[in-house]
């Protein structure tokens, strides 16, 4: 459901059916063990590394964010109250806030990762329907995958207001928006260097 390289260079993978985050060698892919699990975590979807190398996990089925230390010790969990539902994708923004997509209430919340204080809704509207994962665009604005209408929506990162569809509904056959990434601009070698 989510994969990320950690600050230690290893690969971390959410295992939704076992309610764990598994750790693999970042060079060989060898299984290194369970990086996080237990403590009632149910349905891990998002994962992000935050202050102190701690692992932040959006657990959809119990609507909480779980925090584990780099050594896998459960530290705490938190949420924003019963009026928000299904914490999924998690992302740290440029200001250090933890953003958490709420797939059933169709918004994105912000938290202070040091105090766990809920800072309220930072993105909603604009047709957002079942947000799952998010990413910061190169221009600093927030892109949110809208699973329910097969699109990627853009929000002003300072005001939270919708800017519009970055990828319109179903463009190119897009169906069920989950995770996405930006690739750096890398010059493509001339075809002559490919031996063609």
Provide the succession of SSEs: EEEEEEEEEEEEEEEE
Low-confidence stretches: none
Helix content: under 10%
Biggest sheet: strand arrangement: 1-2-3-4
What is the average of the pLDDT values? 91
Task: Describe the global form.
Answer: globular
Measured on Cα atoms, how large is the radius of gyration? Answer: 17 Å
Number of helices: 0
Q: How far apart lie the N and C ends?
A: 38 Å
Strand content: 35-45%
Number of strands: 16
Strand-pairing-aware structural class: mainly beta
Q: Could you give a short account of the major beta sheet?
A: 4 strands, antiparallel
List keywords for this structure.
196 residues; mainly beta; four-stranded antiparallel beta sheet; globular
Describe the structure.
The protein has 196 residues and is an all-beta fold. The strands form four sheets. Strands 1-2-3-4 form a four-stranded antiparallel β-sheet, with no helix packed on it. Strands 5-6-7-8 form a four-stranded antiparallel β-sheet, with no helix packed on it. Strand 14 and strand 15 form a beta hairpin. It is globular. The model has no long low-confidence stretch (mean pLDDT 91).
What secondary-structure arrangement, pairings included, does this model have?
Layout: E1 3-5, E2 11-15, E3 20-24, E4 31-37, E5 44-49, E6 55-59, E7 64-68, E8 74-78, E9 87-92, E10 98-102, E11 107-111, E12 118-124, E13 131-136, E14 142-146, E15 151-155, E16 162-167
Antiparallel strand pairs: 1-2, 2-3, 3-4, 5-6, 6-7, 7-8, 9-10, 10-11, 11-12, 13-14, 14-15, 15-16
């Amino acid at each position: 459901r989510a994969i990320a390289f950690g600050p230690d260079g290893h690969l971390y993978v959410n295992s939704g059916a076992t309610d764990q985050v598994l750790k693999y060698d970042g060079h060989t892919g060898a299984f290194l063990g369970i990086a996080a699990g237990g403590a009632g975590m149910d349905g891990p979807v998002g994962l992000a590394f935050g202050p102190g190398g701690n692992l932040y996990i959006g657990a959809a089925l119990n609507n909480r964010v779980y925090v584990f230390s780099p050594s896998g010790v459960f530290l705490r969990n938190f949420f924003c109250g019963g009026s928000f539902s299904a914490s999924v994708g998690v992302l740290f923004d440029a200001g250090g806030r933890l953003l958490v997509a709420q797939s059933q209430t169709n918004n994105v919340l912000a938290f202070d990762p040091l105090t766990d204080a809920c800072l309220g809704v930072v993105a909603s509207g604009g047709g957002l329907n079942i947000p799952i994962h998010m990413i910061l665009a190169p221009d600093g604005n927030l892109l949110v995958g809208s699973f329910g209408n097969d699109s990627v929506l853009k929000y002003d990162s300072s005001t939270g207001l919708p800017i519009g569809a970055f990828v319109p509904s179903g463009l190119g056959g897009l169906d069920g928006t989950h995770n996405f990434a930006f690739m750096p601009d890398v010059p493509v070698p001339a075809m002559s260097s490919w031996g063609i």
